[in-house]
């Protein structure tokens, strides 16, 4: 059974580990997402100017989701997320497609890291049990009949399979080590505690932020269509807040 299931289980785990590791790297490497975060931090400091919170050097990814719950101005339907989307669209439009760099977050958020580790552990355990079984079958014992050809063929086939599986599992372990290292770097990069850092929560928060930003941007564009252009003919979305 292990031989029949091995390739599909190994490939599935490899794909998930690779996705998690590559997504962590893409989030850190995204200059556009960094630009969005810098604008968000500046906006937060401006809103809190004159307050002890007005000189923040950074913000958690989870705190970004609060923007959708804070009203901006007299219109109760307009939030700080709408304001942020309008600000980026008006001042830094080249950042608007930052979500493209983060497209792996949705799938990564659905993967439980502990489940990936458990699957790795189970594959290693199955490989160890197979090695022990083959050793027991091949071991000569007093009173044991001479090994027939079918048993000998079975041992040969399964030994070759085990040797190949062992190499592939070692490679998979190396990929998991890369994934773990990138999680540590990701936590450090965003000022999180590496010991309590949850990749699943992180990717969920990033994905939620992207969804909220894009929804707010779409809503601001709908509002903009209903408003007349300014006297100079410009279609600046920030004019909706004046």
From the alpha carbons, calculate the radius of gyration and give it in angstroms: 27 Å
What does the average pLDDT come to? 86
Protein structure class: mainly alpha
Query: What's the tally of helices?
Result: 7
Low-confidence segments, ≥5 residues, pLDDT <50? Answer: none
The helical percent reads 55-70%
User: Termini distance?
Assistant: 68 Å
What about the largest sheet? none
- Percentage of residues in strands: under 5%
Task: Specify the overall morphology.
Answer: elongated
The count of strands amounts to 0
- H and E order: HHHHHHH
Protein described:
It is a single chain. The protein has 242 residues and is mainly alpha-helical. The chain has 7 helices and no strands. The mean pLDDT is 86.
Key phrases:
mainly alpha
Task: Note the topology.
Blueprint lengths: L1 H28 L1 H17 L32 H12 L13 H5 L3 H26 L10 H41 L9 H28 L16
Helix pairs in contact: 1-5, 1-6, 3-7, 5-6
Brief summary of the model shown:
The protein is mostly helical and 242 residues long. It is built from seven helices and no strands.
